[in-house]
């Protein structure tokens, strides 16, 4: 189907060479914004940059594990930075220096965000420490997910005072800390509860995934927001309102780009919302940005991570990208997304 509707799709190497030949700018702000056709609508928000907090939205590693150093965001309230107790990961850890807040959650809130590709129940752990001879003291904090209620979460197993450990439980209930996360952006918040409690690293992972309780697991990548040289920016292709009614069990997404934009769009038969024309927003040679990704339904976009080489010659170069969703079954339908125009920059 695709070969009959599009000109030859070339490799990304051709795009890289063309971009490098563009005039370089010493300093330039990276930009990315959506573009649409003039005549044939695409599914709403079908190709977008989803990060809401650049550099702080975590993506999973190959095992589905998210790893964040607690100190990756600035300390708030009475959290204090320390690095004087060996066994921590990263550059240091936070200690709650404020009073005991056994009935007052929400003070000194630390906020961490993850992008979940597959909805489900995930384990949440904090690499922690409490230096009190009574292992039931100085051993807890408050936690909540996606604005829900605050819950006491604690560490207390086999007199684990004075050592770094991964023991982390709910109270009440005493079960391992786990939450249901929806596909998309999810927020985890921690606030102070017990004076002296120390927190070092936050991990989120499916039950049984390797590395979820290991300080040697590398910190996982963050979702980029703009095409800055030396970073990776992320595009999400899909049909969040199910406007095209494609089969989520048999649909792929292909991300294409070109150095030239068709201002109003080139009509392509059969790639519109209702099977009519879709507007191809790319002009000239089409270049494949990344391998095709599976699209699994309105709540599960296909995610494309696009690395930008750390090459000053790319600064100031522009291109436009667009995705096509297509059913892989015989005679399957397809639809073109909106486009994203981007300019490579240094910040």
List keywords for this structure.
347 residues; mainly beta; Immunoglobulin-like; Jelly Rolls; 2 domains; seven-stranded mixed beta sheet; six-stranded mixed beta sheet; 24 strands; 4% helix; 39% strand
Q: For the record, give the distance between the C-alpha atoms at the N and C termini, rounded to a whole number.
A: 40 Å
What share of residues are in beta strands? 35-45%
What's the helix count? 2
| DSSP strand tally | 24
Element order: H for helix, E for strand: HEHEEEEEEEEEEEEEEEEEEEEEEE
Into which percent range does the helicity of residues fall?
A: under 10%
**What is the fold named in CATH at topology level of the largest domain?**
Immunoglobulin-like
Highest CATH level, the class of the largest domain: Mainly Beta
Class by helix and strand content?
A: mainly beta
Low-confidence stretches: 51-55
Shape: elongated
Mean pLDDT: 87
Q: What composes the largest sheet? A: 7 strands, mixed
The structural domain count equals 2
Radius of gyration: 24 Å
**Second CATH tier, the architecture of the largest domain:** Sandwich
